[in-house]
Amino acid sequence: MTPDIETKRIVIKIGSSSLTSINGEVSRRKLEKLVEEVVRLKEGGHEILLVSSGAVAAGYRRLGYLTRPDSLPERQASASIGQGLLIETYCDIFMSHGYVASQILITRDDFSDENRYNNARNTINVLLERGVVPIVNENDTISMDFLKFGDNDTLSAKVAGLVDADQLIILSDIDGLYDADPRKDENAKLLHKVDEITPSIEAAAGDPGSANGTGGMKSKIEAIKIAMASGISSFLGNATTKDIVYDAVHNHAEGSYFEPKNNIQNLNQKKQWIAFNSGPQGKVTVNHTTREAIINERISLNPTDLRTITGRFEKGAVVTIIDVKGEVIGLGVVNYSSEDLNNFISKTEIEMKNYEKVAIENKHLVCHLDAEVPVNSLVTN
């Protein structure tokens, strides 16, 4: 096959219901359809990474359950069986087409630690550059509920940002984004082009997912918001549609396309990590004047900008920056521990001004400009 003129790095997320049979087991037929489309893209020169659900759904029947278990230990035990079945099937089918697939199991801790985050990024880049198809899933066997990404929709968006993807494709058992819930409103219309996630769109997103999955439309919208903030185009469509992946990449699929506005401030790797993965360890309160300067001028914080410090943290930690009313302004990386910052606040006005002069001359600011993320509804963890 002739390579496409414009090759892309593409992250494809496929949900449990799109991979499993009516009995809840891995459907080889469904996997073969997906792999064939991925191979078609690979032969066009594209780099492909899969974020695949299905481990719990694939394993619970082998554990003796008739329906998907509810308790965490039972789901984790099911995942320990199902993940092996899932990756074995993927590898077998990809190898039949001459491609190598790899398994990457990730936890939220891997993203919240900046060194591990960068290590995962470097490893995946090597795999993609060598023509391998990485298959990513959350490590459900050891992840605790309160430390999970929540669902693979969110994981896929964060992985797309991690690898600087050109496009995120989310496949599920739904046709795309509607202006109302099509299950309740027969006049609901499919939205083909979206350049902004408005409050009305979020309100129209329903919570429930399918019986074999964990994410509904709400989780997909949240994932797409993360991707758009990172400057990544996204597509949402039905996995059962013929040639859905190939057509999505070539912009003529039936579904919903999400394109970031041209004027959006794309977040670089550092800011993506701060905004979506770091997990703030404390809070710093600033005055109203500083709030406006951060938002409008992207200033860095000086010692005299601080009002109160909440929590205990060390130098290099990510903190939430709030105003005196408690409203979130953004996130930043501090150059001092909470103890040192509290010491700054306790200084007299004259002592503070003298210290600030020295701090600025030596570039010892509380938060560096390039490490701050302005207030935005997209700044979540």
From TrEMBL:
InterPro entries referenced in this protein's UniProt entry, alphabetically: AceGlu_kinase-like_sf (IPR036393), Asp/Glu/Uridylate_kinase (IPR001048), G5K_ProB (IPR041739), Glu/AcGlu_kinase (IPR001057), Glu_5kinase (IPR011529), Glu_5kinase/COase_Synthase (IPR005715), PUA (IPR002478), PUA-like_sf (IPR015947)
* Keywords, ordered alphabetically: Amino-acid biosynthesis, ATP-binding, Cytoplasm, Kinase, Nucleotide-binding, Proline biosynthesis, Transferase
Q: Which residues bind substrate?
A: 53, 140, 152
Recorded catalytic activity of this chain's protein: L-glutamate + ATP = L-glutamyl 5-phosphate + ADP
**Gene3D superfamilies per UniProt:** Acetylglutamate kinase-like (3.40.1160.10), PUA domain (2.30.130.10)
Q: What superkingdom does the record give? A: Bacteria
> Where does the UniProt entry say this protein principally localizes?
cytoplasm
Biological process according to GO: L-proline biosynthetic process
The pathway entry for this protein reads as: Amino-acid biosynthesis; L-proline biosynthesis; L-glutamate 5-semialdehyde from L-glutamate: step 1/2
Could you tell me which SUPFAM superfamilies the record lists for this protein?
Answer: Carbamate kinase-like, PUA domain-like
Transferase listed as a keyword: yes
Instruction: Give one GO term, molecular function aspect.
Output: RNA binding
Q: Which residues bind ATP?
A: 13, 172-173, 214-220
Q: What Enzyme Commission number does this protein have? A: 2.7.2.11
Gene Ontology CC terms: cytosol
* Protein function: Catalyzes the transfer of a phosphate group to glutamate to form L-glutamate 5-phosphate.
Q: Which PANTHER family match?
A: GLUTAMATE 5-KINASE, ISOPENTENYL PHOSPHATE KINASE
* Family statement: Belongs to the glutamate 5-kinase family.
What name appears for this protein in its UniProt entry? Glutamate 5-kinase
Please name the source species: Virgibacillus necropolis
